[in-house]
Amino acid sequence: MSARLVRRLVGPLALAVICAAPAAQSRDAASPPIVYAANVDSIIHPVSAEYMIDTMNRADGAGATLVVFTLRTPGGLVDSTRDIITHMLAAKTPVAIFIGPSGTRAASAGFLLTIAADVAAMAPGTHIGAAHPVAGGGEKMDETMAKKMAADVAAYARTLASRRHRNVGLAEQAVNESRAFTDEEALSASPPLIDLAASDVADLLRKLDGRTIMRFDGAPVVLRTADAQVVAIDMNLRQRLLSAIAHPNVAYILLSLGTLGLTIELWSPGAVLPGVAGGLCLLLAFFAFQILPVNYAGLLLILFGLLLLVLEVKVTSYGLLTTGGLASLIFGSMILMNTSEPDLQLSLQIVLPIVLGLAAIAVFLVRLAVASQRRGPIAGVASMIGEVGEALTTIEPGTTGRVSTRGEIWKAIAQEPIVAGDRVSIVNVDGLTLTVRKT
After folding, report:
1. How far is 186 from 121, CA to CA, in rounded Å?
2. Which own/partner pairs from 325-331 qualify as long-range (CB within 8 Å, at least 24 positions apart)?
3. Are both 35 and 132 inside the same structural domain?
4. Domain for residue 10, yes or no?
5. Among 48, 75, 271, 378, which has the minimal tally of Cβ within 10 Å of its Cβ?
6. Cα dihedral 372/378/383/385 (nearest 10)
7. pLDDT digits over 112-136, tens only?
8. Do 231 and 265 share a domain, yes or no?
9. What pLDDT is stored for residue 57 in this prediction?
10. Final residue of a structural domain among 324, 352, 374
11. pLDDT by residue (tens digit) across 56-89?
């Protein structure tokens, strides 16, 4: 009896599941593909690496069809680039690197990211290449170490290009000879460095629909990108903040503000706010300098110049310390960034106002210091010298009279005859007796 009851209950349920399965499959097949899109417009550093890796993880979790990174970068750190590529090669979702819009580039680290992607595309008027490695800490490498670094990166580029069936020779030349390639040169090479050219992301998705690509492990994948739902992934607030800080001009401003804040705190201990703000700015600046290719000789020149401007307030040098400080600031700023990339150089529109502003502050403080040194005493007996008063009695040489000054009546002597009512000035103080003369 119970067995018949179970069969009666299970039979309709199984039939419902069997009927529902094709319907679910048809709904999944009818749903549009999902494409995750992200813009990387910065130096390749730990922050941008975290952003790109998070985007790939989210695409894998959502079962996306493709991840498209629109890349614009002057280069970056090799370690961060390797982290991104390692995750890119292991990602479940295919990754496309699109160099755009027109007029932009992906140099150095951006070149390695492009040739490592499942799909490499460029907009008209863009270029890639110039991937020769440079030291990121400002130290000068000897010839042997430079060759080792170049050979290591060149081998890495050859490996990526070979596995992606891209031009191995041109990839090696981009590293060893710092060659750069336009979109037409990259596409027309045999074999090509990139897969296709597209005007924008929408055009790229149209051209990729139905295209078969090979993953890094050799598995073929057919892309379905027609009418795809594009999900834009932006940096979170923390990533945007840290990425903005890791810029040469911003780091330079933070260094200047931090030093100025600590200097003000030393001038007026107990102010608290300048010291706290200055310390925070310096910590953020040092974070940025760990990411950027900084020449530490330039950094030391900047700090030395700021020190000379501070010493000008304490030491009378008739402007020599200020002149030396300004020269040290300017030369240090010019060599601060240890790279030939224009996007990583300090802007004179930032450097000159900061240097002139610090100079103006130093000159203003020096004038205050000089004025305070020239000012006479304002308390004690010495402050009486030069004061003007009025004779209350006649004062003959060798006799004592009385004068009024500062609202007080004093005994006074003089070397010349003084009549009551005459205006007198004080030339000496001896105890409670003043020596005066006519004014």
Report:
1. 10
2. 325/359, 325/362, 326/355, 326/359, 328/301, 328/302, 328/304, 329/301, 329/302, 329/305, 329/355, 329/358, 330/305, 330/355, 331/298, 331/301
3. yes
4. no
5. 378
6. 60
7. 999 999 999 999 999 999 887 765 4
8. no
9. 96
10. 374
11. 999 999 999 999 999 999 888 888 999 999 999 9
